[in-house]
Structure formats: structure tokens, C-alpha cells
Amino acid sequence: MKHLDLDIVIVGMDILLLIMAFYMAYLSFSIEIKGAVGKVVTNLVIGSIVFGFAHLLETAFHHFSLASEDANEIIHRSIILISLIFFLRGVMKLHSVFAKNE
Which residue from 12, 78, 80, 87 puts its CA 20 to 30 A from 20's CA? Predict the structure, then answer.
């Protein structure tokens, strides 16, 4: 596969990841989930969107040489860490909901 073809596949996958994250947000918020479960879903959706942007930004930074490779890796991993914080908050809230019911 040529380098340009690989770049197209990578950008396509990054965009697909974001589309899926925003579709998840649309589905989740269209049914207006409230309370503790709503907070869980909100954190998971925000984490997914941040995760998608992390990958798209990494691709853009690499393709347009907006940062050195080392800086790009640090920026990418930092944004992924932020997305995982949202995932963790969602799972912790889910845990607290089920722990109360035990």
C-alpha cells in the first residue's frame, strides 16, 4: 500500500471513530437519560469524543508536521489520558450505583 493510500485509510478511520462517538452521543442524549445512569452515559460519551479527537489530532500533527514526533506522542497520550479519565469517572459512577443496590 502506498504512503498516500495509508494516510487516507488512517484519516478515514479517525473520522469514523469520531462519527461513531457523536452517533453514540446522539443516541444517548435523544432518550434523555437522567440521574446516575445519565451521568455514567455522559462521561462515557465525552470520553469517546475526546478519544476520537486525540487520534484525529495525532494524525493531523503528523501529516502536517505541526509538532516533532516526540511532542506529537506526548500530546496524543495526554489527550488519551484525559479520555480515560472520563471513562473511569463513568465506570466509577456505574460501580457506585450497583454497589448501593447490594
Answer: 78
Among 57, 73, 47, smallest CA distance to 15 is for 57
User: In one letter, which amino acid is 56?
Assistant: L
Name the CA dihedral angle for 61, 41, 9, 80, rounded to a multiple of 10 degrees. Answer: 30
What is d(CA 67, CA 61) in angstroms, rounded to the nearest whole number? 6
Digit-coded pLDDT (tens) for 19-76: 999 999 999 989 888 898 899 999 999 999 999 999 999 999 998 999 999 999 999 9
Joined together, the cell numbers standing for residue 36 give 446516575
Whether residue 36 contacts residue 93, with contact meaning beta carbons closer than 8 Å, is answered with: yes
DSSP reduced 3-state for 44: helix
